[in-house]
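Q&A log
Question type: sequence-to-structure
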Amino acid sequence: MYLDFYGLREAPFSITPDPRFVFLSERHRDALAHLLYGIGQGGGGGFVQLTGEVGTGKTTLCRLLLEQLPENVRVALVLNPRLTPLELLQSIAEELGIDIGDRRDSLKRLVDALNGYLIDAYAKGLRVVLIVDEAQNLSFDALEQIRLLTNLETATQKLLQIILLGQPELRAMVAQPELRQLAQRITARYHLLPLDVEETEAYLRHRLGVAGSARFPFSRLAVRRLHQYSGGVPRLINTIADRALMAGYAKEQAQIGEHLVERAAAEVLASPLRRWRVARPAWVALALLLLATLAIWAWPSSRTMQPVEDAATDTPMPAPAGAEIETDSNPAPPIRLTDAGEGTQESAFRRLLALWKLRASQADVASAMRCPATISPGVFCLRGSGNLAKLRALGKPVVLRLRVESRDAWAVLIGADGAHVRLGLDGNTLDVAHDEFEQHWLGEYFVLWRAPAFLSGTTLRRGDTGPGVEWLRRLLLDGGYAVLDPDGPALFDAQVEAGVRTLQNATGLVPDGIVGPETMLAVAGIDKGGPRLRRRLN
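Response status: OK
Response body:
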């Protein structure tokens, strides 16, 4: 219902798993790396254990893991672990395609059939992995049966790799004395934590961007409230954000504030929030009483105190030193964007073209402002959305549209460190604190990049050949993302796909192994040519 009102192509916060909407925080990438590491150990490893609260993304990581497994891996995936040991072995055999025939009702004969399959797979150079989701629901007997499966081994290595995914209760189960033999065989453990406030905002921006949003509708306080009520759990973030957008549509509010989020959370969450809301008036009354007491106590000296705004101007911050990207001059001290000039879209794109040293014959300003996929042969433009962390990872100057006091201000991001961003705005260069910048940036950016002209309109995927694949192989090899034969054929094979996924994981993109516009930009970024963001502003 609210899609047209917020300029969306599709619902951004559906709880159904869609790989296009997958957002990998740093914690998710670490967890996925642990799983891949565990499988990479082959038969020589033990158990791999991944735990996390409900809704933190364990099943999503499992899906990504299955997509990234090498071709020589065979997987048995158990999604319903409420099974007896006999039923568990039957499920594993069925998942691996083992013909168990009349052996279904015998534990020994099922284990013998599984052992025969594992030995045959080992002889063929295959690896076999058992993944158990919701493993906290396994009975002690089933867990013990799984442990016994690790006894299937040759003289040099184990034949079955086991991954247990579960809620935090799984850790408590494995820690019990009865399962100490299993606990000793866990070689890799990872507990997946919820998103923090910054990651929550990045998550919201990512999903809205995929759904086609041209602006970020949540205010800063709304994001903080959403994180507070959801606890950073992605599934709850989806539920509350969806309800908040629905409420905003009903009230015709283009900007979602903290009050709409509070109402949405009260509707979708369980009783603890309602109890807090009942008690809220008492807390408000107490806070007002304290403020009144402090005001009376401070009144005699308040007339001699200097206003905070005036005091802040007495000691100006020194201007950061150091050369800028290309032709930019030293910036002024950090200021508020409300005090800066009005930057036009034309001036911002003109400055970006100057940073790339593009002449009018190569790319004109009017064309760049439309940001077509190809501005001119070998010069490409991408319009995207994200957060500051994504722009820093991108490492290139970008044009940004800021919203300052109900007007648009266009700027060029030319540097960013841990505290400030450096902007080219209205012919000037200035430093702005992160918080101040993020209050006014809508999440939209425009970036230029160079690549061979034959890549125009190209999407590369497994099985492709030709000069585009040759270019891709060379840069993946130069960047250390893939181990390839430099003189090998220009074929997008399994090794190239693995390298693309590695690059996508490293740059925060969905690791689908397909080289579309965003991945093409990341690949082009391996080549150090062209202007780069400053990493140190002092």
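Response note: The longest helix spans residues 271-302.
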